[in-house]
Design a protein that fits this description.
With about 220 residues, this protein is of the alpha+beta class. It has 2 domains: about 70 residues, Glutaredoxin; about 130 residues, Glutathione S-transferase Yfyf (Class Pi), Chain A, domain 2, CATH 1.20.1050. The chain is built from 8 helices and 4 strands, in the order E-H-E-H-E-E-H-H-H-H-H-H. Strands 2-1-3-4 form a 4-stranded mixed beta sheet. It starts with a strand and ends with a helix. Glutathione binds next to helix 3.
Length: about 220
C-alpha cells in the first residue's frame, strides 16, 4: 500500500504511526502542499494529504484510511468495540483533527509551511493570536482529560493517543513548548507517546528535514 504525503502533516503522521503500531507496512511517498505529482493528484481529488493507494482502491482522508486499515488488520484493535470507549476514541480523533490542529494549523502554516516551503510570508499575527487566545483553553481541556500515566481511553493504546499526540509534534517543531508547570499531564503524555517507535523516527526525520530547509 502506498501512502502519499509528508509526515510533517499531522494527518499523514497519524496514519503512519497508526500503521506502524499495527505492524502494517506502508510505502511512504512524501509529497508537499500543492504538489502536482500526477499519481498523487489522481489519488487525492482535492490535493489533500494523506492519500492511500491499495491496488485499484484509493482513499484521501486520514480517518477514512485509518478505518480501512483497522478493518483490514483488526489486530491489535486500535478502535475499541465497547460503545463508550469507541465514542471517546472517535471524539479524541475529531478533537485532535479539528480543534487542536484547527488552532495548530494557523500557527504551523504561517510560521513554517509558508516561509520555508512555499517561499512566501505567513500571517504571523494570525499565528500569534491563535497561540495566545485559542491554544490555552485547548491545552486546559487536555490537561483535565489526559491521565497522569498510561493512555487516554480503555487503559491501552488506541487511535485516541495517536491522534492527539500527532499535532503535538507540530507544536514542538515550532518551539511552542507545552509548559510542564502549567500542563504537566499533557507534557508527560506527549513525551510518552512521542518516544514510541511509531513516532520517534518520524519526529527525528522531520526535525532534520526542517533544519535542512532552514539552512537552505
Ligand atoms: N480531513 C483531512 C485533512 C487533510 C489536510 O487538510 N491535509 C493538509 C495538510 S496538513 C493538506 O493536504 N493541505 C493541502 C491543501 O489543502 O491544499 C484528513 O484528515 O486527511
Amino acid at each position: 500500500m502506498i501512502l502519499y504525503g509528508s509526515s510533517m502533516s499531522p494527518f499523514v503522521r497519524k496514519v503512519l504511526a497508526f500503521a506502524s503500531e499495527k505492524g502494517i507496512e506502508l510505502e511512504s511517498r512524501p509529497v508537499g502542499v500543492g504538489d502536482t505529482n500526477p499519481e498523487f493528484r489522481a489519488a487525492s481529488p482535492f490535493g489533500k494529504m494523506p492519500a492511500l493507494v491499495d491496488g485499484d482502491f484509493g482513499l484521501a482522508d486520514s480517518s477514512a484510511i485509518i478505518h480501512y486499515l483497522e478493518a483490514l488488520h483488526p489486530d491489535p484493535a486500535m478502535i475499541p468495540a465497547d460503545p463508550r470507549a469507541r465514542g471517546r476514541v472517535i471524539w479524541f480523533e475529531e478533537f485532535a483533527d479539528t480543534i487542536l490542529m484547527g488552532c495548530g494549523a494557523k500557527m504551523f502554516f504561517n510560521r513554517v509551511v509558508a516561509p520555508l516551503f512555499l517561499k512566501r510570508d505567513g500571517d504571523l499575527q494570525l499565528a500569534d493570536k491563535a497561540e495566545q487566545h485559542e491554544l490555552p483553553p485547548i491545552l486546559d481541556y487536555l490537561e483535565r482529560v489526559v491521565p497522569a500515566a498510561g493512555f487516554l481511553v480503555a487503559d491501552r493504546l488506541t487511535l485516541a493517543d495517536i491522534a492527539v499526540a500527532s499535532p503535538l509534534v507540530n507544536f514542538g517543531h515550532m518551539q511552542v513548548a507545552i509548559d510542564p508547570e502549567r500542563y504537566p499531564r499533557v507534557a508527560a503524555f506527549a513525551e510518552r507517546i512521542h518516544s514510541r517507535p511509531s513516532f520517534a523516527p518520524l519526529i527525528a526525520r522531520e526535525r532534520a528535514f526542517l533544519e535542512r530547509a532552514k539552512a537552505a
